[in-house]
Design a protein that fits this description.
Number of strands: 28
Largest sheet: 15 strands, mixed
Strand order of the largest sheet: 14-13-12-1-4-3-2-16-15-28-27-26-25-24-23
Number of helices: 12
Length: 549
């Protein structure tokens, strides 16, 4: 019944620390005035207010995990007691429960439904959904009748009783309607009237005012509507004066682990920007120049590719590509004859294009080219004497404080990383056999949304490149479909004349878009663990939020 519940607090930071760090709940949306927690199939929002507020709410957990849940919780917070007991069995609901209070004084209940079993140890991912939400109002009868009119029945045969706890709902989900000054079970806290909002799974919403009055309205959220329309799975994050973030879908579908705003995602070809930055750094250091030729730098490997580093960076080299995106449709087809688990380094890709003929005369035109960036990765390794991924870590991830980013093997993904998913005939499978096992110079890094904001900011503020080199990287050197291309980065002039720099990634189980808006110095990043959806959502967010902050 409960899709989202919005409560209010004047202790926002303390509450965030309690739920995120002390209890370990995942934040799926956050801005300066609120944060949203994933509660299984439901979401719980705490929104900032000037006035202290206290509520009661309950969370459904599997009945067979009651003892495990109680032990897990008692290690993190003190359980409330009543008459010497710290748990209770409610025969009418066939459920066991225990209680505790958060920093705001909210009375939180874990209620274990004996009819529901789940295997494994108890974790935050064991929480099923929000079970109960209290509405405290001096207008119990009036509010109760309006809720009943929404086809949400009162439990029992007596109807709404002003001086009692009224349970309205079905199954394992209830609104608890109560008058002020009633003491909540397992606490000394009295019920108080405060505003709240309940969004039901069918889209209807119940708003309760600060005075306890009822108001029903239909949810209106164009961003959420777009996410639902496209069945978006991933994270959207706007780094701005008023930051905003939202996560949706599952990082691990089999275990129903939800995406959170700090989840890592693969970014596909978005990784080319990192390669370009390292090349520019090496040029700054005098170790190579943009006019150096590939055949001179790597004569044994590419003796016949007389193309410059500048041409490789700008996709104007004309060298053959191992995956020509303008001709080939499915990246996954590449690995049917070549085991993807063998594609671990840049050198592993050389046989795929080394002996193929040139596509056109160097510098003649723009033609997106993955092999060109493989060649740049090989140049970087040859100049530095180090593996490409180690160079990017030392030269970009560490100075830009991209602490959660890296090039991870698909069979060794670290925690808080989303699996990529491919939809096939209404079913889902991971992308483990659809892309190379490890990323490199042309694709395959993993990042978080906040790490991407750090990357853009450190690129633009001089941390990664000098003020003399940055304009060279961001200078339009080629054009395709009304968009200019610099070194590893797309450049677009918006309708208001301001510049937008952006990078994209698209491959099986990966969809990515990240942009820096020069006028506002905002960064918008959309990460998805599906094959599509990031670009479309990014355009919606750009229309609704950029220039309006």
């Amino acid at each position: 019944m409960f899709k989202k519940v919005i409560l209010y607090t004047n202790q926002l930071e303390d509450m965030k620390g309690f739920y995120e760090y002390q209890l370990g709940f995942r934040i799926v949306e956050e801005n300066d005035t609120s944060f949203t927690l994933s509660m299984g199939e439901s979401q719980l929002v705490f929104r900032e207010s000037e006035k202290a507020a206290v509520y009661h709410f309950a969370l459904n957990i599997p009945g067979n995990q009651f003892t495990l849940a109680k032990s897990w919780t008692s290690e993190r917070v003190t359980l409330n007691r009543q008459e010497g007991m710290d748990e209770v069995f409610y025969a009418n609901f066939d459920a066991d429960a225990f209680y505790f209070q958060d920093p705001a004084g909210n009375v939180v209940e874990f209620i274990a439904r004996r009819s529901v079993d789940r295997m494994g140890n108890f974790t935050v991912d064991s929480i099923l959904n929000i079970s109960e939400v209290s509405i405290t109002t001096p207008y119990v009868e009036e509010v109760g009748e309006l809720i009943e009119d929404m086809d949400i029945p009162v439990r029992g045969s007596k109807g709404i009783e002003v001086n009692s706890l009224n349970f309205l709902g079905r199954g394992h989900a209830f609104i608890i309607l109560v008058a002020p000054k009633r003491i909540w079970y397992f606490s000394k806290q009295k019920s108080e009237t405060h505003p709240l909002s309940i969004e039901l799974t069918d889209g209807r919403r119940i708003n309760i005012s600060a005075e306890g009055r009822f108001q029903q309205e239909k949810s209106a959220n164009p961003i959420l509507d777009k996410m639902e329309q496209t069945n978006f799975s991933g994270v959207a994050y706007l780094a701005a004066k008023e930051p905003w973030a939202m996560a949706r879908g599952f990082a691990d579908r089999a275990n129903e682990r939800p995406n959170a705003i700090d989840t890592r995602f693969g970014i596909g070809s978005g990784s080319k920007a990192f390669t370009a930055v390292v090349v520019c750094q090496l040029v700054e250091e005098g170790k190579i120049s943009f006019e150096d030729q590939l055949s001179h730098l790597l004569p044994k490997t590419f003796p016949h590719f007389n193309v410059t580093i500048h041409q490789l960076l700008t996709h104007t080299s004309g060298i053959p590509d191992y995956f020509d995106e303008q001709v080939m449709d499915d990246y996954e087809d590449l690995w049917k004859q070549r085991p993807m688990y063998r594609m671990q380094t840049a050198s592993d890709f050389i046989p795929l294009f080394k002996e193929l003929p040139m596509m056109f005369k160097p510098g003649e035109r723009f033609h997106y080219n993955n092999a060109g960036y493989i060649a740049l990765g090989l140049i970087i390794e040859n100049v530095t004497g180090k593996e490409f991924t180690d160079v990017v870590t030392a030269r970009i991830f560490e100075p830009a404080e991209m602490r959660n980013s890296g090039y991870f093997s698909l069979d060794r993904l670290p925690g808080q990383t989303a699996f990529g998913y491919i939809e096939e005939e209404g079913m889902w499978r991971t992308n483990q056999y659809a892309i190379p096992v490890r990323g490199g110079a042309d694709r395959g890094a993993y990042v978080t949304a906040s790490d991407m904001a750090n990357f853009w900011n450190c690129l633009m503020n001089g941390t990664l490149l000098t003020k003399d080199m940055l304009p060279k990287m961001l200078q339009a050197s080629a054009t395709r479909n009304n968009s200019d291309y610099g070194y590893g980065i797309w450049i677009q002039t918006q309708a208001n004349g301001a510049l937008k720099y952006h990078i994209m990634g698209h491959e099986p189980g990966v969809s990515f878009h990240s942009a820096f808006y020069a006028a506002e110095h905002n960064v918008l990043t959309v990460l998805s663990n599906k094959s599509e959806g990031a670009h479309e959502l990014a355009m919606t967010l750009e229309e609704l939020k950029i220039g309006k902050e």
